[in-house]
Amino acid sequence: MCRMDPNSSYRLAARVGAYVKFNDDDGREYCEACNIPKVLDRDSTNWNDLLLDISAEIKLGSKHKLRVTYWDNMSRSYEEINSDQKLLHAIDMYWESRRLSVQVCVLRKDESDVVHDVGRLESMPCLLQGSTDIMCC
């Protein structure tokens, strides 16, 4: 078992908004919002692996995709993370606190970039400081 370097570790607080899961048999299932806390190593963080990890945690269906955003202090707006470079930029922005909060929206693969998540208000960053007891579906 490898130990994580304390000089390069950080906390990721992912808030997954509520959404409707469309099953392969055309059934629908309501999934509540949930928190996914992680401790990661900045030096080995990989965007694709992180997406796969979040997808597995919430049991993402084949008809869905994820949209991950964070609050950019410089532009004062939510920015999408969609590459290793953007993920590292977000981590660096919050490096002093060693905690990156992200909002995860689950979308249908056939939807445009317009966000239609059910739990929009539940994804607000002020709630990321709260308890992480809520379980994903």
Summarize the structure.
The protein has 137 residues and is an alpha+beta fold. The protein is built from two helices and seven strands, in the order ββββαββαβ.
Overall description:
The chain starts with 8 loop residues before the first strand and ends in a 29-residue tail after the last strand. Mean pLDDT is 82; it is low at 113-137. With 137 residues, it is of the alpha+beta class. The strands form 2 sheets. Strands 4-1-7-5-6 form a 5-stranded mixed beta sheet. It has 2 helices and 7 strands. 15% of the residues lie in helices and 35% in strands. The relative contact order is 0.27.
Sum up the structure in keywords.
137 residues; alpha+beta; two-stranded antiparallel ribbon; 2 helices; 15% helix
Helices, strands, pairings?
Elements lengths: L8 E8 L2 E4 L5 E4 L2 E8 L5 H11 L6 E9 L4 E5 L2 H10 L5 E10 L29
Parallel strand pairs: 1-7
Antiparallel strand pairs: 1-4, 2-3, 5-6, 5-7
The biggest beta sheet reads: 5 strands, mixed
Q: Radius of gyration over alpha carbons?
A: 15 Å
Q: Tell me the series of helices and strands, N- to C-terminal.
A: EEEEHEEHE
Report the portion of residues in β strands.
35-45%
Instruction: Give the CA-based shape.
Output: globular
Instruction: Please give the order of strands in the largest beta sheet.
Output: 4-1-7-5-6
